[in-house]
Amino acid sequence: MGKIRKTYDVKFKKKAVDLYFKEGMGYKTVARKLGIAHAMVRRWVKHYEQEGIQGLEEKRGKAKGPSKGRPRTRPEDPETKIKHYIFNFCNYSATS
């Protein structure tokens, strides 16, 4: 089973970034103060530098682009679906 990841809201991430930039603290000092890993602070600072506040938003699990999700490889109209079902059923019955 995979690890359960803790997610942080944009406000918390911005606080970490502000401590780094405005207070002049290092990654490890900010991490110790907030009780998180210094690698997370480094990642948030990097994302903030590249994308601004949007770089701190959660991106995992969000599809990009106008059409979300994986596009279908072939259209599945009801008639085609039935033909595939019958074909697969007949082939399965013949081999059993």
Account of the 3D structure:
It contains 4 helices and no strands. By secondary structure, it is an all-alpha fold. The longest helix is centred in the C-terminal third of the chain and has 18 residues, at 78-95. The radius of gyration is 24 Å and the shape is elongated. The model has no long low-confidence stretch (mean pLDDT 83).
Please describe the topology of this protein.
Layout: H1 10-21, H2 27-34, H3 38-51, H4 78-95
Helix pairs in contact: 1-3, 2-3
Work out the helix count.
Answer: 4
Radius of gyration: 24 Å
Low-confidence stretches: none
Helix content: 40-55%
Q: Characteristics of this structure?
A:
96 residues
What is the gist of this entry?
The protein is an all-alpha fold. 54% of the residues lie in helices and 0% in strands.
